[in-house]
Amino acid sequence: MSALADPNFPGDAALATALFSVDPVGLGGVVLRAGPGPHRDRLIAWLRSLLPETAPLLRVPLHVTDDRLLGGLSLSATLRAGRVVAEEGLLAQASGGVVVLAMAERIAASVVAHVSAAIDRGELVLERAGLTGIVPCRIGVVALDEGLDDERAPAALSDRLAFKIDLTAVSPRADMGSPPDHVLARQARGLLPVVELGDEVVEAFCQASVALGVPSLRVPLLAAAAARAHAAWQGRTRVEGADAVVAARLVLGPRATRLDQPAPDEEETLAEPADAHPDREDHVAEPDDSPPKAAPTRSSSPSSLEEIVLKAAKSGVPAGLLDTLVLGPQPRAAAPGAGKAGLARTSSDGGRPAGTRAAVPRSGERLNVVETLRAAAPWQRLRRRVGESGSARRVEVRKEDLRITRFQQRTETCVIFAVDASGSAALQRLAEAKGAVEQVLSDCYVRRDHVALVAFRRDSATLLLPPTRSLARVRRTLADLAGGGTTPLAAGIDAALALALEERRRGRTPLLVLMTDGRGNVARNGSEGGTAPAADALAGARALRAAGVRALFLDTAPRPRAHARALASEMGARYLPLPYLDPVGISRHVQSLAVGAT
Amino acid sequence: MVPFPFTALVAQDELKLALQVVVVDPSIGGVLVFGDRGTGKSTAVRGLATLLPKMRAVAGCPYQCDPAGDVAGCGAGCTAREGRNVVEVPVPVVDLPLGATEDRVVGALDLEAALTRGERSFAPGLLARAHRGFLYIDEVNLLPDHLVDLLLDVAASGENVVEREGVSIRHPARFVLIGSGNPEEGELRPQLLDRFGLSLEVKTPEDITTRVEVVKRRVAFERDPRAFVESHAPHEAALTRRLQDARTRLHDVVVSDAVVERAATLCQSLGTDGLRGELTLIRAARAAASLDGETEVGDVHLKRVAPLALRHRLRRNPLDEVGSTLRVEKAMAEVFGARS
């Protein structure tokens, strides 16, 4: 208990790890946000020591293939035995234990979907060569999130994992203390099945999650599981107020998207703010800025339990979140669970299988075992009869049988809009620009392009929307785009270029649509006036051309000017002066650019 | 794992209605469920499987052919099966998991038989298993494009044609496609969208009492699944009977010319493309009437299913998806309001 009672360590890391080890399946798992380092390793080691010795703890690498994740045909065994031999996938192997997902912030959507399905159902439905049927898969998940800034583990995953541990702010030299007691963990696991949970606790969790603006119904469920695990850890057979308090702090707090104070106007940007209960607001008037140690109140009378739970949950609200809530959300704060939890990446289309073809695999290409064997199978009798020097092989595979998996690569386009939202370009024209972007978007939708949105104004450029195919998000983000301020053109170009390069690394073809009047007045170092802003913008433009990113320069100035044209030619962009933005025309140009790119 | 009982789902009435409607009339052609995470989309579909009344099938047929129906298309020789034996089988509800490989979906050369016995035989895939039943695709918007193309083709023709590795076979594959997904994670291809007869958007319930009830039931279910399922068994049985009755009565339900006309007016005022919308609307209204035990389709049924049947058929401005429900409602108010 000692390490747990003294959670000096941020985010109650030890406590969360201990509870997770009590009920990995019920709690789903942990999002562990931290760079690689001793702390992270230590937590994993703790978890290892807390789990039963027989429970597997398997690491799933970022670029795991479906074959390894779900299982598939084993090439060597099949060829040796002359019959179909399948190999279990990582998820099935991990059943009864824990999988550790490396770099969860970059994980492919398909992997997320498989892991989520396993969490939801406790089993895997397999329809793969050599493996058909349902295999048990009761797992807990540790998602290692190494994201910077806005990069986060996908929302579909974090929604299912009870705990979030954030170690990013912890000094590498900080002392983590001693690990939780594994004997206690074992006893708690034994006790867990008989731990009772009263309805009043469930109600308190539901009330608190609504008050904190947490729409997902999985969250109160996870909180209930956490409360039971905590009760079991304490050796109790019934969940008490103290257990609910800990669960609220660990599970509800980090997910809060608002505190129950009068909502500022901007909060409408949060997707469907759950119907705030007016009567809740007088219970707790002001937010708790200084996280108090979890109130050790033992009272469990229903009315006060709700207050206690809510208060405890607030103490678990991350400090940074509190600031953004009090100051009003930044324009980038999107829907809870979506924008907030970061990019739900649509796919890792650097290599999405798209059928097979007959060919000898060269470097970088992947042999498709099943299809190869299928191609070889009908000939086996004949080939054996021809009998090439008493071959001991059970299956004879020849060169013409080889099949490789075709991957869809570099066929996808990502259109990056860099929109000048400054006062000079914007105020009168921002609405038109939005209209144009929407028109292009609906075409992108049809072509299944990805779309990203960068806006620049005042002193910086902001990535408003990471590449997505979700028009729901694009629409919301666009609606929130406000204009005004100075023009940091250089910063805008730089940000767009960085994003373009990142997209290229991901295997997509970036296309840049820059919408500005070309009159930058903020330099890279943030200074205004003088010649630096223009020079920096030119430098950025040259970098863009050097990188070979295709671009379209839409001059939004009321009257086209020479310097905008010069800038466009420096970046090797197609220049379109659009005194009157014509959405359909823009869309046509983007399309022609895209055709040229592939 | 026992699925959570369908009748124990709290709220989500539109979702439950849509699923029951396609059970009563599978020709409506599928349901698309889009919505927030954790709203019980998958739970509802999986719960549906246990509700379905059993169906009769030719014994030994891999495509579970209907003994009373036309078996000419069966590739497994049902036509030749003299005095076909008939068995009662559960209606298949087949999961198409995201990682499914193409050969498992369409079927392919039976590798085992080919390698060990040198035989060339066909191993039917998921499409064969789903024939006369339901094909459920969770996260349908994340399905690889080449699988989507394949599904579109089969869904349109009702037949699966396999031509690969020396296997040449065709078999019937008529199924109700049920897709679910979260629009935040990617849009669905427009072509696939049109393939679904009904579509709806589910939202997390916002009022506290409902939310508490949802969580309580889930907690109770997780504690003791069997006891929980047991306690809902009477409701489940009642719903199964209701579905069965609605199905047998379906073709006796009268659709008056007035109703057809109103459906047409509604579609016209919404500018839906093609006749498919009207047809689906009328079929769905008929199924809803049958579920109610009515003998004739009334306005109330049209109204109830119109958003389901038309929402995704409005002339597309893909950026304006949220507004489509409102547009249907507005048009309904005009069409029906004028009469009353």
Could you please describe the fold and organization of this structure?
The complex is a heterodimer of chains A (598) and B (340). Chain A is α/β, with parallel strands linked by helices and 598 residues long. Chain A contains 24 helices and 18 strands. Chain A folds into 4 domains: 1-182, 3-Layer(aba) Sandwich (Rossmann fold), CATH 3.40.50.300; 195-347, no CATH class; 352-408, no CATH class; 413-597, 3-Layer(aba) Sandwich (Rossmann fold). Helix content of chain A is 41%, strand content 17%. In chain A, the strands form 5 sheets. A 6-stranded mixed beta sheet of chain A has the order 15-14-13-16-17-18, with helices on both faces. In chain A, strands 2-5-8-1-9 form a 5-stranded parallel beta sheet. In chain A, strands 10-12-11 form a 3-stranded antiparallel beta sheet. In chain A, 51% of the residues are buried. Helix content of chain B is 46%, strand content 15%. Chain B has 13 helices and 11 strands. Chain B has helices spanning 13-24, 41-51, 102-106, 111-117, 126-130, 145-157, 190-193, 208-223, 225-249, 257-270, 276-291, 299-310, 322-337, and strands at residues 31-35, 55-58, 86-89, 93-95, 107-109, 122-124, 134-138, 159-164, 167-172, 176-181, 198-202. In chain B, the strands form 4 sheets. In chain B, strands 4-7-10-1-11 form a 5-stranded parallel beta sheet. In chain B, strands 2-3 form a two-stranded antiparallel sheet. Chain B has a two-stranded antiparallel sheet with strand order 5-6. In chain B, a hairpin with a 2-residue loop joins β8 (159-164) and β9 (167-172). In chain B, α11 crosses α12 (299-310). The longest helix of chain B has 25 residues, at 225-249. Chain B is globular, with a radius of gyration of 21 Å. The interface between A and B is large, with 83 and 64 residues.
